[in-house]
Specification:
By secondary structure, the protein is of the alpha/beta class. Helix content is about 35%, strand content about 25%. The chain has a 7-stranded mixed beta sheet, with helices on both faces. A two-stranded antiparallel ribbon has the order 2-3. It has a two-stranded antiparallel ribbon with strand order 8-9. The protein is globular, with a radius of gyration of 18 Å. The N and C termini lie far apart (about 35 Å).
């Protein structure tokens, strides 16, 4: 990818944390720091990203702005309210990016990525136009009917679990969002449905999305290991 290409990022943290027993995972402390701050910190440090838009729940905007200000995250140009669906939130963030050639879309609740992962993703996107982080599935996968009867067992060697970051040409992902009205679970699906190639690149088994209280324990262990002696606590 050309060094003059401008890369923006949309960090999506506008969910309602339904599986966290009423606790907003965006601000839950990990090693004494709000979860979202760990994610912002990594984007702040990387030289590969020029601009960041943070998308949050409407009721969380003031708290999000304070974290950005207190952390000195100067790449964050906007903290905006999300929409009804995740894809609505992403589009609102995309519309606030300025003159970006490429965009990284990342879940705010995935704080355990690193700069090497971003580099792999940008290289894969430069090759194919779009790229998705993922890991090979370790378990055998079963497709089942509504009655829980097994209907198919896919070849595990061809099965990956998709993650974020997901990286796209800006024009491609905007076209995909404008062309998609039905619900999708990730941005890559929209691009795939338009017929564009999407390349998978290696994310990481440690690149978990914090969804439940148990995930917090795992994420804390991974973050502590990544910070080493510089761990916040």
């Amino acid at each position: 990818m050309s060094s003059i290409s401008k890369v923006g990022a949309v960090i999506v943290a506008a969910g309602n944390s339904t599986r966290m027993n009423g606790v907003d995972k965006t601000f839950v402390p990990i090693l004494g720091t709000p979860l979202i701050a760990h994610t912002l910190h990594r984007f702040h440090l990387t030289p590969r990203v020029h601009q960041v838009v943070l998308v949050m729940a409407k009721d969380s905007l003031a708290q999000g702005n304070k974290i950005v200000q207190d952390g000195g995250y100067t790449k964050v140009t906007d903290v905006c309210a999300g929409g009804r669906r995740r894809q609505d939130s992403v589009r609102l963030g995309l519309e606030l990016l300025s003159n970006c050639d490429w965009v990284i879309i990342h879940d705010g609740a995935r704080p355990c990525f690193d700069d090497a992962m971003l580099q792999r993703g940008l290289e894969a996107a430069a090759h194919a136009g779009s790229a998705v982080a993922g890991v090979p599935v370790k378990d055998t996968i079963k497709l089942v009917t509504q009655n829980l009867l097994v209907s198919e067992t896919p070849d595990r060697s061809q099965t990956w679990a998709a993650q974020t970051p997901q990286i796209f040409r800006y024009q491609t992902i905007m076209e995909a969002h404008k062309s998609t009205s039905h619900d999708v679970t990730d941005d890559a699906t929209m691009v795939e449905n338009l017929g564009y190639p999407v390349k998978m690149f290696l994310g990481g088994y440690e690149n978990i999305k914090v969804t439940t209280a148990d995930d917090l324990i795992i994420a804390e262990a991974f973050l502590r290991a990544s910070y080493g002696p510089d761990s916040p606590d």
